[in-house]
Amino acid sequence: MSPEVRRDLHFNLTQAESRQHTGSPAPPGWLLFLIPSVGDLLFLAILFLLSTGVLSQKLLGDAGTGWHIRAGEQIITMHAVPRSDAFSVSTAGKPWYAWEWLYDAGIAVIHHWFGLNGIVVLTAFVIAVTFALTLRFSMRRGAGLPVALFLVLLAAAASTIHFLARPHVVTWLLLVIWFEVVDSSETSADPRRLYWLSFITLFWVNVHGGFLLGFVLCALFFLGKALEYWRMPESRNNIMQWMKALATSSALSLLVTLVNPYGYNLHLHIYRYLTDRFLMNHVEEFQSPNFHGLAQQCFAALVLVTIATLAIATRKLRTSHLLIAVFAVYSGMYASRNLPASSILLGLIIAPVLSTSIREFAERATLLRGTWRWFLSFSHRMTTMEFRLRGHLWPMLGTALLCVICFNHGSAGSMQLLDAQFSGKRFPVQAVGYVEQHHPGMPIFAPDYWGGYLIYRLYPREKVFADDRHDLYGDAFLRRYLGVIHVVPGWQKVLGDWQVNLVVLPAESSLSNILKETHQWQAEYEDETATVFRRITAPQEK
Question: What is the pTM of this model?
Answer without folding.
Answer: 0.91
